[in-house]
Amino acid sequence: MVETIRWTDGGVVMIDQTRLPREERYVTCKTYEEVAEAIRSMVIRGAPAIGVAAAMGIALGVARADATNLDAHFEKICETLARTRPTAVNLFWAIDRMNRVFAESRTLPLAQLSERLIAEAQQIRLEDIAINQAIGRNGAPLVPDGKTVLTHCNAGALATAGYGTALGVIRAAVSAGKKIDVYADETRPFLQGSRLTVWELQQDGIPATLITDSMAGHFLKSGRIGCVVVGADRIAANGDVANKVGTYSVAVLAKENGIPFFVAAPISTLDLTLPSGDEIPIEQRAAAEVTHVFGVAVAPEGTTVQNPAFDITPNRYVTAIITERGVARAPYEASLRALVSASAAI
């Protein structure tokens, strides 16, 4: 399976997802600023993956620091990383976790403090892989045998430290012996479905068919699709889900056609401080992502563009939310809080 991100003595190494599938190229970020730019420019993307990247960016920033004004420097590192992408709550969850380790270890010599932060960042990565595998185990029984699974965007190994959330459910279902194939929305404008999801599934030998986003309704009506499985970037207390733009449309079409719509995400993606999806900030990205494809203009010069990176799927369209601690169903206010309070053993 592809290795999304790892810590090395030379810096944080990550696969450059902007170059896939044309080129499998790894880049090394040698400063926390480079990690922040990699997140901002989507060299690394996916909510769990950018959480891991932020943790490693903080560890890298402290490892390259000196003891002078360390508190102010640490605050600057965290602020720089927090400003990269506003929607995915895993980013802020990881920063908070690293903040706690820094506060608990602040009286140690700098070298030991740095070692603790590096160890914590590496632990976050390992935990994420185990969490994704648990999500897969919990979700596999929900996938109908002998049917097609529709997914939107990329919620696979590339969006995490490994294995994936939505694709983790699909991988686990295949490992359990279910005969399934996958329809992947291309996911305009950044084409995560066509460039990343199809590439990942091909690596695993899982049958995958690429469709344009506008074809989803046609196939959801056809009777071929057994369920929809997507990831999430933030889930509010009431079960409203922020995910890649276009997810809401798929959810509405799935409900219209009586097809289960599942969201696969770790507990760290839950934001119980927000009562509903109305409070989730939506990232706005550059117009060039819409007007150009791989640098080639596909719209007239001067075209006005709206480019929200995410949309909100109201909880009434969500059949279940699959986490590492179990499966939540409506009413989500109660079921999600119960999962947060449940044992963390995976």
Structural class: alpha/beta
Query: Would you identify the CATH architecture of the largest domain?
Result: 3-Layer(aba) Sandwich
The shape is globular
Radius of gyration, CA atoms, in whole angstroms: 20 Å
Stated plainly, the CATH topology of the largest domain is called: Rossmann fold
- Helical content class: 40-55%
**Per DSSP, what share of the residues sits in E-state strands of 2 or more residues?**
15-25%
What is the count of β-strands? 16
Strand order of the largest sheet: 6-5-4-7-10-15-16
- The end-to-end span amounts to 21 Å
Query: H/E order of the elements?
Result: EEEHHHHHEHEHEHEEEHEEHEEEEEH
Sheet with the most strands, sense and barrel status: 7 strands, mixed
Question: Mean of residue pLDDT?
Answer: 97
Number of helices: 11
> What name goes with the CATH superfamily of the largest domain?
Translation initiation factor eif-2b, domain 2
The CATH class of the largest domain, by name, is Alpha Beta
Unreliable spans: none
